[in-house]
What we know:
By secondary structure, the protein is α/β, with parallel strands linked by helices. The protein has two domains: about 1-35; about 40-385, 3-Layer(aba) Sandwich (Rossmann fold). It contains 13 helices and eight strands. It has helices spanning about 1-35, 35-40, 100-105, 150-165, 170-180, 190-195, 205-210, 210-230, 250-255, 265-290, 300-310, 355-370, 380-385, and strands at about 55, 125-130, 185, 235-240, 295, 315-320, 345-350, 375. Strands 2-1-3-4-5-8 form a six-stranded mixed β-sheet. The radius of gyration is 21 Å and the shape is globular. It is found in: Secreted. Belongs to the 'GDSL' lipolytic enzyme family. InterPro entries: GDSL, GDSL_esterase/lipase, SGNH_hydro_sf, SGNH_plant_lipase-like.
Amino acid sequence: MFTTAIFVRKLVGLKMMKHLVLTLTWMLWLSLCGRCISQVQPRLPPGQQVPCFFIFGDSLVDNGNNNGILTLARANYRPYGIDFPGGATGRFTNGRTYVDALAQLLGFPRYIPPHSRARGLDLLRGANYASGAAGIRDETGSNLGAHTSMNDQVANFGDTVQQLRRFFRGDNDSLSSYLGKCLFFSGMGSNDYLNNYFMPDFYSTSSDFTVKAFASALLQDYSRQLSQLYSLGARKVIVTAVGQIGCIPYQLARFHGNSTRCNEKINNAILLFNSGLKKMVQNFNGGQLPGAKFVFLDFYLSSSDLSSNGASFGFDVIDKGCCGVGKNNGQITCLPMQQPCENRQKYLFWDAFHPTEVANILLAKASYSSQSYTYPINIQQLATQ
């Protein structure tokens, strides 16, 4: 016994040993209590408003799921994560993502783990299924390599529900009650435009669909996916609009050089999708999904406000990435070991596509406690209902 303990400590290290002991203690408790977890649900840490947080999306919220797959959409190298305590974890920004900041506002003592590393009892507090380059459509983002599409993310959550069912000893009512108190976040659609519809050299969708028809097809697929999440237990759901991606450094560099004028062709296409998405949320809340509470988070309006009124939010630079290559630092994302800008808190964008940590924090705070960008209620109200 003693020799085995020494071996395990050397193998996994002291920190992992503590985690192993904690996990074994929980497993022993579960085996002794039998069905008790189905009768008395886990107590929340002080200040934590919901028991768990499940996240679906793309590189705006990916926290490491793409690290182990063959893709160009990866961020597990410096300077990504330069301001994050864990370094380059796979987050596509310099520090915290929007959902990292939101999880802190919700009172979670630790960040929600990526699905690729979430195991056992970790799943009781949630998981992040997001994948860089992912979209609503399966083929979206394939020009960059492998990824986990929204369909696959929903399927992965289905696997998680099966694992959670074992913790609840097959008591589906208690599991449903538990998941009904959790918060779900879904941010999809950006890549369906950036890395699909408006990339005709790789995809035929712009020939197969008009802009209006493509938005309608996306919404039909997305409605089905969100309904599947509902059938798996999601009841409190945040759904984000696509941001003003016609104004990101990538688009400014590609179409307008150093001009600050946006690509309105893309923005107008996105507005069609966003308008339909808000109506979808209204329908879900209006009885289409009984008992569900959906919140529409208007990332288009919030990103427009940040870029149009950058100075009032503390930003000096709103049209260039803090790191990257080419015009506006927008032609290529941050290169490995590239030296980023020093005054990162003054930049709206971290690279060609993604906001800085400070922008993510501003958006999280605004959507959490006010209704400037949320409909019909804010996220704090959703969490506490």
